[in-house]
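Thread amino acids onto this structure.
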């Protein structure tokens, strides 16, 4: 039975992904900085889907621990899904470099730190799949997502590069740009229902992308066209817009 490793497993999207892969007969490794929170999900998965489910301590910001974390997994995962991320108040982040730094380091540096290790392992095995949950916010710099968007832009570029570098070694990399999703991260926001996905829809899309070896996916199809329009607005116009 294949195994999937989920990094940032306390997230709402990660929980849905864990259940989707378990329902598809994957053993599941849940990794998060608060393992206490993972116990109910672990029991639920074991009972409901009759697969192995383990949990592991993982902090995206503890870069120096990442190699030991991956080495400690007695079964190495066939697929690794990087879900963790933070989105903080952008206006506050401009005045508070700690917040800016946390967004950059969680969404980008931490992801690169662990995925470099995983990618090297998969390359040596000539097999493996990496999925990164990035964002449409990384497709064009905007005032409302100044720091978060730039960190996700870097993450998307990294995933593209990783796919290109390790393709010859049979390592597949999927970039996921979910658009809006109803989760803890967005619970304060008023989101437009037709453009907003449930975590289970993200999980279905991720699973299909892994099976079909897709490169980059949007969860709701409209986002591809919305972003195409946004990317094509001339800069002289775009800089005057409040988005
Ligand atoms: N919701 C959306 O509309 C949306 C849209 C596009 C992309 N995304 C991306 O989707 C991913 C999942 O987010 P979500 O919407 O499911 O929100 P969420 O429920 O708030 O999940 C964020 C997760 O990141 C984890 N995390 C934060 N810092 C961490 C660290 N240092 N080490 C390990 N884990 C850490 C959190 O763990 P704790 O429980 O320990 O805090 C939490 O599980 C993120 O990468 C986000 O940027 C979300």
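Threaded sequence (243 positions):
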């Amino acid at each position: 039975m294949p195994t999937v490793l989920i990094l940032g497993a306390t997230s709402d999207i990660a929980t849905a992904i864990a259940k989707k892969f378990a329902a598809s007969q994957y053993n599941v490794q849940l990794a998060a900085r608060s393992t206490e929170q993972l116990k109910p999900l672990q029991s639920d998965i074991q009972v409901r889907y009759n697969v192995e489910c383990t949990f592991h301590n993982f902090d995206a910001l503890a870069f120096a621990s990442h190699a030991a974390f991956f080495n400690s997994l007695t079964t190495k995962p066939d697929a690794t899904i990087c879900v963790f991320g933070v989105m903080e108040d952008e206006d506050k982040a401009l005045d508070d470099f700690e917040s800016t730094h946390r967004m950059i380091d969680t969404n980008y540096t931490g992801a690169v730190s662990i995925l470099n290790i995983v990618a090297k392992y998969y390359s040596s095995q000539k097999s493996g799949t990496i999925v990164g949950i990035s964002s449409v916010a990384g497709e064009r710099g905007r005032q409302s997502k100044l720091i978060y968007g730039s960190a996700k832009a870097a993450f998307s570029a990294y995933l593209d590069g990783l796919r290109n570098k390790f393709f010859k070694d049979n390592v597949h990399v999927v970039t996921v740009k979910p658009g809006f999703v109803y989760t803890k991260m967005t619970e304060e926001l008023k989101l437009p229902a037709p453009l907003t996905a449930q975590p289970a829809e993200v999980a279905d899309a991720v699973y299909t992308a892994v099976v079909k070896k897709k490169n980059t996916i949007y969860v709701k199809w409209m986002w591809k066209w919305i972003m195409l329009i946004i990317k094509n607005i001339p800069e002289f116009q775009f800089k005057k817009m409040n988005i």
